[in-house]
Amino acid sequence: MAKKGNRVQVILECTEQRATGVPGISRYITTKNRKNTTARIELKKYNANLRKVTVHKEIK
């Protein structure tokens, strides 16, 4: 029987684009270890709509 892993898929969404009102949504899918990282993660990722690197936060 396969054991259940601690890694879960999370969705990262751009915070700056929501505030500016530019149409479209920049989202990325990644994985995180639920046991080591219990808090929501923030990563700097490229936003194609704004054409710059912005902060992306984990959404539920």
Describe this structure in words.
With 60 residues, the chain is mainly β. It has a domain of 40 residues. The protein contains one helix and four strands. A four-stranded antiparallel β-sheet has the order 2-1-4-3.
The tally of beta strands, per DSSP, is 4
Order of secondary-structure elements: EHEEE
Give the low-pLDDT segments: none
Helix content: under 10%
Radius of gyration, in angstroms, nearest whole number: 14 Å
Alpha-beta content class = mainly beta
- Could you tell me the mean pLDDT? 91
What gap, in angstroms, lies between the N and C termini?
A: 29 Å
**Helix count, per DSSP?**
1
Quote the beta fraction: over 45%
Molecular shape: elongated
Can you summarize the main beta sheet? 4 strands, antiparallel
**Main β-sheet, spatial strand arrangement:** 2-1-4-3
Write a short abstract of this structure.
By secondary structure, the chain is mostly beta strands. Helices cover 8% and strands 48% of the residues. A four-stranded antiparallel beta sheet has the order 2-1-4-3.
List the helices and strands and how they pair.
Elements: E1 7-14, H1 16-20, E2 27-33, E3 42-47, E4 52-59
Antiparallel strand pairs: 1-2, 1-4, 3-4
List keywords for this structure.
60 residues, mainly beta, 4 strands, 8% helix
